[in-house]
Amino acid sequence: SVIGGWITKYFVTYIISDGKDAAADGYFTSFITSDIAPIVFMLVFLALTAWIVYRGVEKGIEQFSKIIMPGLILLILIIAIFSLTLTHTDTDGSVRTGLQGLAFYITPDFSGLTVKRFLEILLDAMSQLFFSLSVSMGIMITYGSYVKNDVNLNKATNQIEIFDTGIAILAGLMIIPAVFAFSGGNPETLNAGPSLMFITLPKVFASMGIGTGAGILFFVLVLLAALTSAVSLMETSVSTFMDELHWSRGKASLLMAVVMIVFGSASSLGYGVLDFIRIFGMNFLDFFDFMTNSVMMPLAALATCFLVIKVVGFDRIAREIEQSSKFGRKKLYNFFLKYLAPICLIVILLSSIANVLGIISM
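^ thats the sequence. predicted structure below, dont judge the formating
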């Protein structure tokens, strides 16, 4: 919800102005370190999320997803194609194009790849998959509980794999060629994390000549993507209260909104007035990010492995899947869940904690 608030702020900025403010030096830093603005925009994003969840599965989430997801894919395709057509001429006369950026994006670079760096990349990739596939936070289980018995689970799983990978590739295709064309492929710029979206890209848009339109299109796309994630996460918590405590959807949604306001406000002010509060050297937002991504999700995944192996059982899982489809990966699933997944999860968990405590440096 905090990052969603940042995206909302930039979307509003491009709507009400020509986008030059967003591209100005220090704009992003001054915004996230201010006293009020980060909370206000976080609350706007949170209110929209809570409203969709309150509407329920069919009237809220399903209706929202049916409209938004196809539009999201279309917007990504449009911006990706546009990104490939970009051409930029430097002051020294050198010309860079989006197609050169495409070559940079898809060509492997193994220079400087050590064993340590390989392990870092592998751990980052596995951590990313947690969030990308909505694993270990109950989202897949929650949405899966709404699926009817006649739905082909094997086919649905294949679709998730294809769409998740495809859209991830398209997202890179949308951003990397454009940034390459206007930055010269500087690795520090292309690996800048959040600042790539909130600092580098606005400067790229400002250099295009049609920066306002490009900025609006890009940030509405990212806003919709952020909303789908936030809605999924909130629905998981709301459905838990509804199932376990038999609360109404309205009561559960209100409670989760209050919890999110409390933690979101602390995180929003983590770079500003509450920056003096540090936990293991991290401000609130970074600490919550570490706890959820690097500690809680691996632990939840380990608990899920234990639940399936010791409580539910592989046979029951197989019967559930085989109600509607052939379980083609049964042996592979059993092997991964019993052996490979727990080992990988323990490695991710221990390495993340050791990195924060300074035992190892990654």
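The two ends are 28 Å apart (CA to CA).
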